[in-house]
């Protein structure tokens, strides 16, 4: 194993963490690669130096209107590595989509602006890029699939022309090579007869097929990061399942990092490795998907999970979270979820909650995170015991 004390980084090198696996790091700031490999036995490696593909730190985005300043994103931070998937879940207005738009620097102008934080992608700081440099990254290295395919597609151009646009700009292809790339992209998203349909217009496709076309545009230049912002909301249940399977297949084939934004915990369970729960512009809980479902540590996460209908439990009335989501125009001295929280104590209303680590890789912003986590832990243990007894 390499002696980590002997590894030296130049000033300005990216943040590096010790992570299970080989001791490998990429100094993407200068485009060079350096590595110190360890001998691994039975696919078990001792450790490696790890740099995330996407690292967001203390991101803050504000929107200004006649009502005042809406603090839509308040200090969001997370990491996402190549081939991994992260789900961001929360109610409408929690800041999910604004976080995604901030990563691409596509916040609505002139009303919105990124006021602070850091967005490092592939070792480079996106907030320091010029608009011309960002245009090279959008659609090339980072792609996004938006909620409504009708709003994403231009009705007066064929879908082949619209896919070819990104190929022409980012890969400098033309003629037969360009057409071949367009057809290949349609074939990847399982559009039947792509050679013929490349000449069709958006109105000639069904809703599910239009969403696949938007996906073809997103993957045409083989991006490293794909952001899916409520990409299945407009689809019915059957088509939604097919589309999710398609995204999983594309992620596996292209080794994409996938950032999935949704309000549906069912999609999170199916698609993601880790999950970040957002409320009032902040990530209030972060953990692996299985950990979140089995042992949530934040009252908001508990409330969201209780609101999901259970097929094996009959109830007269579905669970709902009382009150309305916190407005970004209002600054709370304490926890913004406190007025709606059944676990709230006096301290929750007067002081901001601390970030508590309840387990390795599992954090929550809550004064009572340990209690909530312990309660969920006991409930899961009793459920497992009942299941074993039934077996």
Verbal overview:
- By secondary structure, the chain is α/β, with parallel strands linked by helices.
- It has 3 domains: 47 residues, no CATH class; 219 residues, P-loop containing nucleotide triphosphate hydrolases (Rossmann fold), CATH 3.40.50.300; 94 residues, no CATH class.
- 33% of the residues lie in helices and 24% in strands.
- It has 13 helices and 16 strands.
- It has an 8-stranded mixed sheet, sandwiched between helices. Strands 6-5-8-9 form a 4-stranded antiparallel sheet.
- A hairpin with a 2-residue loop joins strand 13 and strand 14.
- The N terminus and C terminus are likely disordered.
How are the secondary structure elements laid out?
Elements: E1 17-19, E2 24-27, E3 32-35, E4 48-50, E5 54-65, E6 68-80, E7 85-89, H1 96-103, E8 112-121, E9 124-125, H2 131-137, E10 142-145, H3 149-152, H4 159-171, H5 175-188, H6 194-197, H7 207-219, E11 225-229, H8 237-254, E12 257-262, H9 265-271, E13 274-279, E14 282-288, H10 289-294, H11 299-306, H12 346-350, E15 355-359, E16 362-365, H13 369-390
Parallel strand pairs: 7-12, 7-13, 10-11, 11-12
Antiparallel strand pairs: 1-4, 2-3, 5-6, 5-8, 8-9, 13-14, 14-16, 15-16
């Amino acid at each position: 194993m390499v002696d980590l004390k002997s590894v030296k980084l130049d000033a300005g090198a990216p943040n590096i963490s010790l992570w299970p696996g080989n001791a490998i790091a990429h100094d993407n700031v200068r485009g060079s690669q350096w590595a110190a490999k360890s001998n691994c036995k039975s696919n078990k490696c001792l450790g490696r130096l790890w740099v995330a593909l996407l690292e967001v730190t203390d991101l803050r985005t504000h929107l200004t209107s006649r009502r005042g300043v809406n603090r839509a994103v308040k200090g969001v931070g997370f990491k996402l590595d190549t081939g991994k998937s992260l789900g961001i879940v929360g109610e409408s207005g929690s800041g999910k989509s604004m976080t995604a738009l901030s990563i691409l620097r596509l916040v609505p102008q002139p009303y919105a602006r990124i006021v602070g934080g850091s967005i490092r992608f592939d070792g480079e700081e996106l907030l320091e890029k010029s608009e011309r440099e960002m245009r090279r990254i959008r659609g090339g290295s980072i792609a996004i699939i938006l909620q409504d395919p009708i709003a994403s597609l231009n009705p007066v151009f064929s879908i082949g022309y619209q896919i070819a646009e990104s190929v022409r700009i980012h890969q400098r292809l033309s003629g037969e090579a360009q057409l071949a790339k367009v057809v290949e992209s349609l074939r990847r998203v399982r559009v039947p007869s792509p050679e013929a349909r490349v000449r069709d217009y958006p109105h000639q496709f069904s809703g599910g097929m239009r969403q696949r076309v938007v996906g073809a545009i997103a993957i045409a230049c083989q991006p490293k990061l794909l952001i899916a912002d409520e990409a299945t909301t407009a689809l019915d249940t059957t088509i939604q399942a097919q589309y999710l399977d398609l995204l999983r297949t594309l992620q596996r084939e292209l080794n994409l990092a996938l950032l999935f934004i949704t309000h549906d915990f069912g999609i999170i369970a199916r698609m993601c490795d880790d999950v970040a729960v957002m409320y009032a512009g902040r990530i209030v809980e972060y953990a692996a998907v299985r950990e979140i479902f089995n042992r949530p540590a934040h009252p908001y996460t508990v409330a969201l999970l209780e609101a999901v209908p259970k097929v094996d439990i009959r109830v007269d009335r579905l669970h709902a979270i009382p009150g309305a989501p916190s407005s970004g125009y209002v600054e709370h001295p304490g926890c913004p979820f406190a007025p709606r929280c059944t676990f709230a104590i006096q301290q929750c209303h007067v002081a901001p909650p601390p970030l508590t680590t309840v387990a390795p890789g599992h954090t929550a912003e809550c004064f009572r995170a340990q209690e909530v986590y312990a309660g969920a832990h006991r409930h899961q243990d009793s459920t497992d015991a009942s299941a074993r007894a039934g077996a």
